[in-house]
Each structure stands twice: as C-alpha cells, then as structure tokens.
Amino acid sequence: MPDPGINKRTLLKAAAGALLSGAARAEDRSPNIIFILADDLGYGDLGCYGSQLSTPRLDGMAKEGVRFEQFYSASPVCSPSRAALMTGRYPTRVGIPAVLQPDSTTGLPDSETTLAQMLKASNYSTMCIGKWHLGSLPQSLPTSRGFDEYFGIPYSNDMWPSVLLHNTEVAEQPVNLDTLTARYTEQALQFIARSKNAPFFLYLAHAMPHLPLAASPRFRCKSGMGLYGDAVQEIDWSVGQILDALSTNGVAEQTLVMFSSDNGPWFQGSAGRLRGAKGGTFEGGVREPFIARFPGRIPQGLVSRGVASMMDILPTVARLSNAHLPDQPLDGVDIWPLLTGDSTAVDRDVLLYFDYWDAQCARLGKWKLHVSRHNTPPWTPEPKGGCMNLPLPRPELYDLEAGPDESYDVAADNPQIVADIWARMEALIATFPDQVTTAWRYITGLAVEDTPSGAWPVWKGP
User: Fold this and answer.
1) What is the reported pTM?
2) Which domains does the chain have, with CATH numbers?
3) Would you state the pLDDT for residue 383?
4) Model confidence over 178-223: pLDDT tens digits?
5) Residue 397 neighbours by CB under 8 Å, 6+ apart
6) How far apart are the first and last CA of the chain?
7) Of 267, 256, 322, which is closest to residue 290 (Cα–Cα)?
8) How many Å is the Cα radius of gyration of the chain?
9) Helices 78-87 & 313-321, crossing angle to 10 degrees?
10) Rounded Cα–Cα distance for residues 9 and 400 (Å)
C-alpha cells in the first residue's frame, strides 16, 4: 500500500529525477563504435563523391554527419592498410608491409595492441565480420586479437582455399559469394540487437567490390553499371540496414558509425579526378572515401578538407571511449576536432606513403613530395615478380589543393618546400625498422653498394 506521506507532486519529482538520472547515465556511457570497410572501393565510387552510381544510404549518412575529402589509407593494398587501422601505426612498423597469403605463417605481431583489444579492456563487446587479412593461423585470427566473435573469410575472396569461418571453425567451403554481403549484414544486425545494452565495437569488413565480384539476386543487374555497380549498391543497402537497426534498437544517438575503403580501385572502380589506382602511391591508390555519423555529436552536412589517415581511427576512438592507449607509440593522431568541425586541420608531421618497405612520398599541408616509384607493370627478371623501387631522377612536388590529379610538378619553383619535406622524411624514417631505413638509403643513394646493377642514376638529395 502506498505511503500516505508521499503525495502526487513528490512522486512526479521522483520520476523526473529517475528519468534525468537515466539520461545522464546514457550520455555518460562510452559510445558504441562501428567501422564499415569496403574492399577496393574507389574515391569516386559513391554518389556523394561524384559517382553516377546510386548510393542513397551512404549519401544520406554524409548529410547526417561528416564527409572527408582528404582521408588516406596507410597503404595502396589490403593487409597493410588493415594493420594500420587496427594498430594506429604505419604497417611497416608492425611488420605487415605487403599482402599476406593464406599459407603465410605470420600475422599481426602479438606485441601490437589492436583497436579491439584496446576497447575490450574497457569492457566493450566486440565482433569482427568479414575480411580480416592479418593472419589466418588460429593465433592470428580475430578471436585471438580482441574480438569476442568472428564471422568471415580470413583473407581476400579470390584466395584459396575459399573458406568462411565462424570464430575458428569452418562454416562453409567453398564460399557462396553471391549472398555474402547479405549474410554479413544479418550477422551485424544480430550483434547490434544482442549488444545494445552496453558499449560495443563492430568491425564490418566487406568482401566487395574486390574481385571476384558478386551480388545477391535482388541487386544483380539492377545498378545499370554492371556487376561492380551492383556490388557497390548492395554495400550501400547494407549500411542502410545497420543505420536502421541502430534506430530500432534505440542506440543511434550512442553510436559513432564510420565508413571507408582499404585502398583505391582495382577493377572498374573510379578514383574520380585522382591519378592512379590500387597498388600505387598516387592519390588514386590511397585517398579513400570516409564518412562518419554520430547524431548530436557530429554536425550534419559537414565537409572536412583536413588531412586524416586510417591510423587516426584508434587514437580518436580511444579519446571517445576513455580507453587506455597502447604502449607502443602511435603514428595516428586524434581527429575528433575534424569530425566535429571544431578545427580544419590537426597537428601532425609529414604523412608518409609506403608501398612495401619503400617510403615513396610524403604529404605536408597541401604539398606532396614524390621521391621514388615502383615500376608498373613489373618488367625486370630480378627480383622475383619483377617489381622494384626506382628513385626518381628528381623529386616531384605537387600542390594537391591546386591539382589533386598530380599532373603538374612544381618542385623547380619551390626548392625550400622540397628541402623541408625531404628533411622531415629523413628524420621520421630514421625511427623505422631496418627494412625501411635500408630501402631509404637506396632511394637517397647513400648506400651505393646496395644499388642494383642496371638501375638508373640515383638522385643524391636536395
């Protein structure tokens, strides 16, 4: 029986207090984190980046949040780019300079702390869905690197054996690629539904639009732009399903959702106005679409021209979640001020562009300096595969604000800028492992005895 000493006004005040307390607790709760990664999606493959493809859900996500114009992967190929995302460090620092194979006996080193491990230590529920590509032995799989659950192909969809894993067990072999995007999406929706009452981290790494292309029957032949367009439009649908699920489960305002790609386009995809594609350090190989939404925290319709990197995700998430940063020094920086529009730039040193162990370019402000380039396509009998890094006869400098297509070399008009970036590169590269510093000595001509016979003359520096 109610206490007669408690009147209606007292009850209403108590109820209001409880509601306010609950709201405060919800606001104070660490945010959910969702990172969605496409595979080989080009900078110009989304409607909001100028494509003719219909991508209404990603375009809508950009209108509800922020779209970056200068977001970079840390490599023009798969495994290194993903290593940078997971660690906040250059992939050459963590021993993943190139694409891992299904029979590789190595993976992301245990000495590295992953984004998932960092969040797991802060009591997050964690799940990885899709392409991992950071080691396929049991000790290297997501379930050994901070993820509570894994569902996906542990490497690229064109690699053999074609196997779909649930945690460490084979769920399907060979994999039906036609329904894979839909199945990945369903796994994501189930994870959100069962994890909504506490902070969670979902990493959804799609297999598409990497070759071989595939799409569900409902999307096949619907884009009007071939199977590539069909695959991209199914990814767009998948993003929409996840955004809808956040609203349905009442956690949209508690969730930061990010979308990007691991590197530039390989087949049929568009790099927009940018020069180059997957496998090279021109902008088309490493500049990626990046969209983020966090209702109430990120302003709607924001477009950022600040320079940001895949390596910046870990320190930014650490800030938002109050998680302890890894012991290893980071190369990424906190880009939350760019996400909110509070700043147009963040303080960082030069941003290096690596291909394999080779530091080929560096970005500083609007300037990008090229010092070497791989021969493409490979044509030499040695080394195996025919790919070698060739120093440029003279460094090439591009003003990416005036010409993002890297068509006009302005090094001759800006010798002090060339010298400044060069000096910064030298200082930063000196902190890298031996493989990187040895490759740099060859580029700069400081280790003449390492110069392969027949290579053209090496430029000696500014």
Assistant:
1) 0.91
2) 30-340 (3.40.720.10), 351-450 (3.30.1120.10)
3) 82
4) 999 999 999 999 999 999 999 999 999 999 999 999 999 999 999 9
5) 367, 368, 369, 370, 409, 410, 411, 414, 417, 418, 421
6) 88
7) 256
8) 23
9) 30
10) 64
Tokens of 133: 């590509």
Please give the structure tokens belonging to residue 178: 């036609």
Place of tokens 């036609």: 178
Is-contact 315 33, C-beta < 8 A?
no
Residues forming the active site: 78, 133
Give the span between the Cα atoms of 77 and 75, in whole angstroms: 5
Tokens of 60: 């809508």
Spatial distance between the Cα atoms of 231 and 90, rounded to a whole number of angstroms: 30
- Residues in the chain, pLDDT under 70: 1-27, 446-462
Is 310 within 8 Å of 73 (Cβ atoms)?
yes
147 and 135 Cβ atoms separated by less than 8 Å = no
97 token code pair: 């300079």
The pLDDT value given to residue 380: 84
What's residue 451's pLDDT? Answer: 43
Residue (of 125, 244, 147) closest to 196 by Cα position: 125
